[in-house]
């Protein structure tokens, strides 16, 4: 009987030791994973940040100081610092090209509208900020409200591959939707009188208005863009790290500072 008790105690000791080894292994695996964000989110050793010119949510250049700002531009640098890797900016003409590059694994980071369509190709953090969607009309335009856009023949410019192109093509059946390769091309088309309206988020519209004397951003909105950090698929385990970064910049005032530096207007509290 004594031998049986001794054997039972020995077996229990072996089980406890085994459990301890498993626990240690799990702790070590967790610690390894916790320090592995850089390898996962910046696999080339650099954080490749996708940007496009003309939007305060991405990248703009101050015409006076010639300094570069933008939500993606600034937060990309800050995110790279957290990963302890250098930042590489990869420029594109429009956001659709940035999203395509992330889908193909050629870009690691950007900030963009987190739509269900885009979520099929890239992964998103929690919502970073929201921006109203609206309309810009050129100087001396008779259009004073969005209701006028329901008339046949109204030429509405949108950026190719953007949210406005898809949504307005479905909702404004009487209008003529004209896609432009970039925001710069949209500004040029308005100057030439080729467009009656331009539609996109108000952050871009207010930026466009500064380059079009007399142009106006109409009151009201036709929705919101919910901006979030986009990364390639397959990096799901890094989502807690991404979300923690979003919460940090929202709570410590950094996001507001970045928005102000970029001259971002039209940002609102995200709808639930």
Can you put this structure into words, describing what you see?
With 272 residues, the protein is of the alpha/beta class. The protein folds into two domains: 43-131 and 225-266, Periplasmic binding protein-like II (D-Maltodextrin-Binding Protein, domain 2), CATH 3.40.190; 133-217, D-Maltodextrin-Binding Protein, domain 2, CATH 3.40.190. Helices cover 40% and strands 24% of the residues. It is built from nine helices and twelve strands. The strands form three sheets. Strands 5, 6, 7, 8, 9, 10, 11 and 12 form an eight-stranded mixed beta sheet that branches. It is globular and about 55 Å long. The termini are far apart. 39% of the residues are buried. The model is unreliable at 5-11 and 13-34 (pLDDT under 50).
Entry keywords:
8-stranded mixed β-sheet; 272 residues; alpha/beta; D-Maltodextrin-Binding Protein, domain 2; two-stranded parallel sheet; 2 domains; single chain
Q: Please give the radius of gyration in angstroms.
A: 25 Å
Biggest sheet layout: 8 strands, mixed
How many domain units? Answer: 2
Helix content: 25-40%
Report the CATH topology name of the largest domain. Answer: D-Maltodextrin-Binding Protein, domain 2
Basic shape: globular
Low-confidence stretches: 5-11, 13-34
CATH architecture of the largest domain: 3-Layer(aba) Sandwich
Given the structure, what is the number of helices? 9
Count of individual beta strands: 12
Q: What's the level 1 CATH class of the largest domain?
A: Alpha Beta
Percent strand equals 15-25%
What multimeric state do the chains show?
single chain
Structural class: alpha/beta
Give the H and E element order: HHEEEHEHEEEHEHEHEEHHE
């Amino acid at each position: 009987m004594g031998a049986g008790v001794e054997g039972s105690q020995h077996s229990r000791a072996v089980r406890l030791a085994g459990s301890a080894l498993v626990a240690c292994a799990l702790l070590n695996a967790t610690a390894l994973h916790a320090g592995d964000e850089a390898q996962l989110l910046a696999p080339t050793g650099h954080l490749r940040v996708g940007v496009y010119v003309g939007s305060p949510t991405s990248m703009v250049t101050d015409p006076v100081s010639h300094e570069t700002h933008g939500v993606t531009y600034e937060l990309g640098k800050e995110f790279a610092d957290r990963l302890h890797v250098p930042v590489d900016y990869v420029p594109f003409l429009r956001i659709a090209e940035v999203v395509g590059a992330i889908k193909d694994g050629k870009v690691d980071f950007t900030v963009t509208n987190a739509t269900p369509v885009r979520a099929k190709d890239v992964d998103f953090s929690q919502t970073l900020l929201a921006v109203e969607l609206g309309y810009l009309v050129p100087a001396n335009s008779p259009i004073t409200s969005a209701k006028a856009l329901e008339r046949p023949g109204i030429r509405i410019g949108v950026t190719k591959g953007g949210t406005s192109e898809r949504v307005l093509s479905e909702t404004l059946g009487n209008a003529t939707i004209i896609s432009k390769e970039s925001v710069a091309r949209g500004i040029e088309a308005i100057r030439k009188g080729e467009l009656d309206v331009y539609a996109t988020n108000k952050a871009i519209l207010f930026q466009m208005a500064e380059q079009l004397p007399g142009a106006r951003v109409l009151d009201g909105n036709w929705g919101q863009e919910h901006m979030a950090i986009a990364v390639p698929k397959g990096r799901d385990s890094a989502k807690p790290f991404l979300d923690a970064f979003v919460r940090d910049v929202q709570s410590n005032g950094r996001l507001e500072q970045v928005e102000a530096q970029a001259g971002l207007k039209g940002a609102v509290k995200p709808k639930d």
